[in-house]
Design a protein that fits this description.
- With 439 residues, this protein is α/β, with parallel strands linked by helices.
- It folds into two domains: 4-252, P-loop containing nucleotide triphosphate hydrolases (Rossmann fold, 3-Layer(aba) Sandwich); 354-438.
- The chain is built from 16 helices and 16 strands.
- The strands form four sheets. Strands 6-7-8-3-9-10 form a six-stranded mixed beta sheet, with helices on both faces. A four-stranded antiparallel beta sheet has the order 2-1-4-5, covered by helices on one side. It has a three-stranded antiparallel beta sheet with strand order 11-13-12.
- Strand 7 (158-162), helix 5 and strand 8 form a beta-alpha-beta unit.
- The protein binds adenosine-5'-diphosphate and magnesium ion.
Amino acid sequence: MSTPIVELKAVGKHFRAADGSARAVLEGVDFTLREGEIVALLGQSGSGKSTMLRIMAGLIQADEGQVLYRGMPLYGTARGIRMVFQSFALFPWLTVQKNVELGLEAQGMPPEERARRAAKVIDLIGLSGFEGALPRELSGGMRQRVGIARALVMEPEVLLMDEAFSALDVLTGERLREEILELWQSGQIPTKAILVVSHNIEEAVMMADRVLIFASDPGRVRAELPISLQQPRKAESAEVRHLIDKVYELMTASSGRRGAGGGGLISEREVKLQLGDRLPQADIAHMEGILELLAEEPFHGRADLPKLAEETELTDAELLEVLNALILLGFAYLTNGDILLTELGGRYVKSGERQQMFARQLLEHVPLIAYICHGLAQDKSGDLPEDLFLKLLRFTLSEEEAERALRVAIEWGRYGDLFEYNFNTGVIQRSEEDKQDAS
Ligand code: ADP
Ligand code: MG
C-alpha cells in the first residue's frame, strides 16, 4: 500500500440547528487518501461531503477524531492541500492572471516568479490568451479553469475538487475532466492525490481508483468500490457500464435507516415517513416524466437503473431523488437494482384524474402534508403561516433542510389541490372548494 497523505480517523462534526440543538453532520468518518490515487465521493446533497472536504483542507476543524497530514495533526490550512469549489469564487475586479497569482502573492512570492508560475499553469489549463480578461468576460467553463488554475499554481500535493464540474454543461465538464486526468497521468502537475466530490456516477467511475459512497444523517462512508481499470477509460465499454451498474447497486442498497436520507434509494421496508423527515427534492414534472418513461417502450414497467438514467436528462442525484419520491408515494418500488412500476403507478400514467390520485397518495404517505391539511381544516380562517410548519421541522432538520422539505410539501400539495399558497405572504390556504365545504 502506498503512503497515506491525509487521514481522517473517526472524524465527527456538529452544527447547531435553529433551535440551538447540535446536529451531527459527520460521524465516525474514517478515510485515508494515499499517494497516487484519485478517489471519488458520491452522496446525496446535504450528506456532509463539502464539510468533509473543508475539514481535510483545514478550512474548518473537526469536533471529534483526528485529521493527519503526512502523519502529523493538521492545524489550519496546509500549503500542500488545495480545494477547487463549484462556485467559481473568483475576484471579479481582478484579471485571470491576477486571480491565479493571488495565493502566491499571499505567500510573499516576488512578482516575476509569481508571473512565471502563473503563466505556466495558465498554459497547462488552456487559458492562454485570456490572461488579461476579467471573469465576467469568460464562459462558465473558462471561469472554472481559472478556479482550477488558482489551485494548481500552488503546486498542491492534494487536490480536493468539490463538484468542480457540475455547474458546467455536460460536454464542457467532460472535456475539463479529461484534461485534468491527462495532466495528472503525464506528471505535468506535482499533485500526488485527488479527491473529487461528484454527483455524476459515470464521472466517478471514469476518473477514480476508488469510489466511496457517503450516507447521510449523519454523514459517513457507507461503501467503497475499488476500480482497477486502466486509464484512459471508455465510457461505452462493457467494463465501465458494469461498474456504473455496481455503483448504482451500492447506492441503492438499504442503509438500514429510516427516511429518505439514507444516502441511496429507499427500500420498501423503510418507506413510512415521519413528520419531521426530509422529503426527496423532486418536482412533479420530473416525477410524471419518469413514470411515463417507465411505462413505455422499452421498459414496460421495469427498468435497469443505469438504462433509465441514460434515457433522462436528469443528473444521477436528481434521478435518485425523483425515484425516492415515487417509491415513497407508492408509484414504484425497487428490486435487485431495478425500478418497477406498482399497479397504482401503471394506472396513474393512464389516468385522467392524476391530481386526485396524487392527493390521495400524499395524504397517506407524507405526514407533513397530512399535518398541514389537518391544521387548515381545524383553523377557522383556513389560513396558516408557513413559519408554523418551519418551526416544527426545525426540531429535526437543519434550517436549510427544513426549508427544502416545506418547499417540496407545498409544491406537491398545490399540485394535488390540497391547499393553496400565497407566494407574497407565505401563507398556506385551504383550497377554495374546501373553504366552501367548511362554511
Ligand atoms: P454536501 O456537500 O454533501 O451537500 P454539506 O457538507 O454542504 O453537504 O452540508 C451538510 C449539512 O451540514 C447540511 O445539512 C448543511 O445545512 C449543514 N451545514 C453545512 N455547513 C454549515 C454551517 N456552517 N452551519 C450550519 N450547518 C451547516
Ligand atoms: Mg457540497
